[in-house]
């Protein structure tokens, strides 16, 4: 027998607020029972569980997510995520259109935005 990943858990200062940000990023709803002030919040469709902890993030993530836009370009998605409250961490875009952008969520957790499938196909 093997194991299955049930959730990826993200420690944070405000579980509901950070889960709300990621809910908007992914277009997936929060669990119907989640409310502001809850110590846990779940985006069930994405398998992301946010848990309030007293410690703040102090070092680089050891695990991060890579996002691939489904209905827009990488650059359009970066602009959308910045408008939602993400911040630019590192821009690895290259003049030929390849590369990625590393952003940070409102609590400083890094994540990357890659090119869309359409952009990858167009470059082949």
Can you give me a brief rundown of this structure?
It contains three helices and seven strands; from the N terminus they run E-H-E-E-E-H-E-E-E-H. The chain has 124 residues and is of the alpha/beta class.
Overview of this protein structure:
This protein is α/β, with parallel strands linked by helices. The protein has two domains: 1-56; 59-124, 2,3-Dihydroxybiphenyl 1,2-Dioxygenase, domain 1 (Roll). Helix content is 24%, strand content 23%. The chain has three helices and seven strands; from the N terminus they run βαβββαβββα. The strands form two sheets. Strands 4-7-6-5 form a four-stranded mixed β-sheet, covered by helices on one side. A hairpin with a 5-residue loop joins strand 6 and strand 7. The protein is globular. The relative contact order is 0.18. The mean pLDDT is 95.
- Termini separation (Å)? 40 Å
Enumerate the strands of the largest sheet in spatial order, edge to edge or round the barrel: 4-7-6-5
Taken from the alpha-carbon principal axes, the silhouette is globular
CATH architecture of the largest domain: Roll
CATH homologous superfamily of the largest domain - what is it? 2,3-Dihydroxybiphenyl 1,2-Dioxygenase, domain 1
CATH topology of the largest domain: 2,3-Dihydroxybiphenyl 1,2-Dioxygenase, domain 1
Mind describing the biggest β-sheet?
Answer: 4 strands, mixed
Give the amount of beta strand, in percent. Answer: 15-25%
The overall pLDDT average reads 95
The stretches of 5 or more residues where confidence is low (pLDDT under 50) are none
What is the radius of gyration? 15 Å
SS-based structural class?
alpha/beta
**Treating each run of at least 4 consecutive H or I residues as one helix, how many helices?**
3
Task: Quickly count the domains.
Answer: 2
Helix content: 10-25%
Count the E strands: 7
